[in-house]
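We modelled the chain as a single entity of 326 amino acids. Its sequence is:
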Amino acid sequence: MKTLRVSTFIGLLILLFAFGNHLSGRLSGEASAKSPAGSSAIPRPTPLQPVLETAQFKHVILVVEENQNYSDIIGKPDMPYLNSLADQYGLATNYYANTHPSIGNYMMLTTGKIITNDSHFKETISADNIVRQLLAGGKTWKSYAEDLPSVGYTGSGKHSYVARHNPLSFFSDVRDNLTQVQNLVPFTQFSKDLANNLLPDFSFVVPNLNNNSHDGTLAEADRWLRNNIAPLISSTAFQKDGLLIIVFDEANDSDRTHGGGHVAMVIVSPLAKKNYRSTTFYQHESTLRLMLEGLGLTRFPGAAAATPNMSEFFTVWMTKVKPNPP
């Protein structure tokens, strides 16, 4: 009887041992099937990669208007098209030019410095500038100037075109480079490049003296914007990831607040907040930073390096990175 009990007990142990080996083998096989070849460890979930939220733009376009006070533009009937853009997109309500007359403001917009206030300035500028940073970052550019006499023209001006409103034409990076100087083109090229999806990363748009409100009326300037800028905004390329900035270079001479007076600055983009009004104090160096930073660049000329950026206008911004979860 004792022998039978011992045999039965040993038999049960053998069955339990065999079952344990079978179960272990199944678990090991399942783990091996989910693990990399040659590994029997149960795999852990792959950590999520950092998520980059970006307001980086493919096309940035700057249009500069002339010599008007903010109070004569915003909310007034003479420029209904520009006001419609300000109402629909972003408006900087506390934006001021840097100096008088115009040329110093154009220099600030493109070099971060008031290099000169001489409207008859003709020298070549070797200071750091927007073209230099665009080229260093592998970006393309063009200056589309209305009534420019010819491609590559770097003279002081003819008829209703003046070089002081086309600062890129002064830079050594342009004047001393046979390839880059060809990017100074008449404005007639703009509609062609838009239609053929050939706009560069950065476009500097220069209306002539009659259409930028310098010599002509506000109504004429507004009509020019509607005729030439509305097709840009409605284009497929722009509606994907474009940024348009329309800014006045300076107020009239009676307003010298913060150097150049209170001016209108409108931001248009599918990535911009709608119906947005900023009360932050800005000047032209912030626009320079916005144009370069919006194209993904990280080096900014002159005062643009330390000025507040304008990320508040956009739904997301390029420097926000979500870290991996623990």
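As a brief sanity check on the tokenised model: The longest helix spans residues 2-34. Residues 1-44 form one domain.
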